[in-house]
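Quick one, probably user error.
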């Protein structure tokens, strides 16, 4: 991944990457800390209820966003979403300003901010597919994966430093940056997708049209198996913040060079290793992947990912844990861009927004499986949990193998350079 490669992308891809980077930094500076904010203001019970409600409604709006992106165009949906995002940031800033402090206004605007973010995602993803060739998609998704992780790291640091002490300034700063992303989208995004079925959907009505649209997506068995396989494999990563985090906290009590290493610090070390490898080694790993056959790179990455997280499920040796996280991260860097490429190629042109909305549900469902894994771990030993990880992963890899036999996957067997 080099700047010269970035320059070769279509202007839509470059603008989308810049806008998404700014948005991801803003969201990671705020979203992870809102649970603390609502807990302090309203109590744990209210905070949990609010965040659960927002998550469920956001998923619904993601489905509508994908549907409307297919019916009315990508740019219109993105612009509408960015307008609501910008307004939300300004009002949240005002609700936490020296002139006003309102937790309920903050809740309403945070709700609007969350649903607008999910509303935009399928349209922006479909926009990428519209203007990218099958050969350049693996490289494009490598760039996106890298920039997303860099944005997340920056956002977490900014939120940790300023959320509690400079809430007003933080929200105001991101409100101003939201104007920038809205301006970029309005002025430079070129929507090449022309909807050809608006009249038919108007006759059906919005709800019936949406149901009809997603029924067709759900009937695509290869695509749905790919989504299910993604869910199963990615559920391992969410165990890091559930079962694995709890296990480390209970079992890790050691020291290194005079410093005490407990479970929480070990988890932090693993997350730092993951982020560091993604930020600084993505380019090298990407270049190596391009020398491999697409399917070889995919399954090599999946195998490394599974092996790494399986070791994290039972081992307590610090060096082994560090090595396991490094292997899992390299594996993820190998398979994730290729998985995204296959999703892009399976999505039909007239329903790409809807396909991407359904694909996004894999992450939501993966989080649910992560939570279930924590509950199941109370009944199983670490060794049995490791066996469960391997069983789930085996089904996931079989799903990947079956789904990518589809004749729509016409990309070259060599990853585009």
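Nope, works fine. Designed sequence:
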């Amino acid at each position: 991944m080099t700047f010269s490669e970035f320059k070769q992308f279509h202007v839509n891809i470059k603008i989308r990457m810049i806008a998404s980077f700014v948005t991801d930094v803003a969201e990671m500076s705020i979203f992870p800390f809102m649970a603390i904010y609502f807990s302090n203001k309203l109590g744990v019970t209210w905070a949990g209820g609010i965040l659960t409600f927002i998550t469920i409604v956001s998923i619904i709006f993601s489905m509508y966003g994908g549907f409307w992106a297919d019916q009315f165009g990508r740019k219109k949906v993105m612009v509408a979403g960015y307008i609501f995002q910008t307004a939300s940031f300004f009002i949240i800033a005002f609700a936490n300003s020296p002139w006003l402090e309102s937790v309920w206004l903050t809740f309403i605007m945070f709700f609007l901010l969350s649903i607008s973010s999910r509303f935009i995602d399928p349209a922006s993803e479909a926009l990428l597919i519209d203007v990218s060739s099958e050969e350049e998609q693996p490289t494009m998704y490598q760039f996106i994966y890298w920039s997303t992780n860099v944005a997340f790291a920056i956002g977490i640091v900014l939120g940790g430093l300023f959320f509690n002490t400079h809430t007003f300034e933080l929200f105001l700063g991101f409100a101003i940056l939201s104007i920038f992303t809205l301006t970029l989208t309005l002025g430079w995004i070129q929507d090449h997708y022309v909807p050809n079925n608006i009249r038919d959907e108007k006759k059906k009505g919005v709800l019936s049209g949406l149901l009809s649209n997603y029924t067709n997506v759900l009937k695509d068995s290869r695509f749905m198996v790919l989504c299910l396989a993604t869910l199963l494999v990615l559920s391992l990563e969410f165990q890091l913040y559930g079962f694995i985090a709890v296990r480390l906290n209970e079992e890790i009590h050691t020291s290194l060079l005079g410093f005490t290493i407990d479970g929480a610090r070990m988890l932090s070390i693993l997350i730092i290793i993951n982020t560091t490898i993604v930020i600084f080694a993505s380019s090298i790993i990407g270049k190596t992947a391009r020398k491999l056959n697409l399917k070889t790179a995919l399954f090599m990455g999946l195998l490394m990912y599974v092996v790494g997280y399986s070791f994290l499920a039972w081992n307590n040796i610090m060096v082994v844990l560090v090595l396991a996280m490094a292997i899992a991260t390299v594996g993820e860097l190998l398979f994730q861009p290729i998985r995204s490429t296959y999703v892009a190629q399976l999505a039909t042109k007239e329903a790409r927004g809807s396909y991407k909305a359904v694909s996004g549900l894999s992450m939501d469902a993966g989080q649910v499986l992560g939570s279930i894994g924590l509950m199941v771990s109370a009944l199983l030993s670490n060794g049995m949990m490791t066996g469960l990880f391997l069983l789930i992963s085996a089904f996931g890899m079989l799903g990947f193998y079956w789904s990518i036999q589809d004749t729509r996957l016409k990309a070259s067997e060599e990853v585009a350079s």
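The chain has two domains: 1-189, 218-405.
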